[in-house]
Design goal:
Blueprint (H helix, E strand, L loop, with lengths): L10 H8 L11 H8 L4 H12 L5 E2 L3 H9 L4 E2 L1 H10 L6 H10 L6 H8 L6
Parallel strand pairs: 1-2
Helix pairs in contact: 2-3
Length: 125
Amino acid sequence: MECTDTMHYREEVELISQAAWINKYSIKDDNLFRLLCTETDAGEAEAIVLALEKKADLILLDDQEARVKARRLDLTVTGVVGVLLKAKNEGMISSLEGEIEKLQASGFWLSESLVHTLLYPSPKD
């Protein structure tokens, strides 16, 4: 699982690894996996193959190259920011700004222009 593949121990990694609500699957199509690995990281490649095999409604990817590959394979893609926006719109989080700050503090990179667009959206005509 890519989100737990880290050289630095973090308490969150242990919690994710032990979460009973997370199902673990192995991919079957090693050929597609190897093909995708020529153009993207193994974690993203495996996620794309698994999403195809499971006929997933949505795949969570933040790597731009992986997102392009997934869309070319007709997968619907969102990222962490998309999940946060949905959570905010559904009232599950109170502050988008606070969650973005937490992401950035953890080392997650977001462009300043994206942060500005998220926090100060242009009024719709």
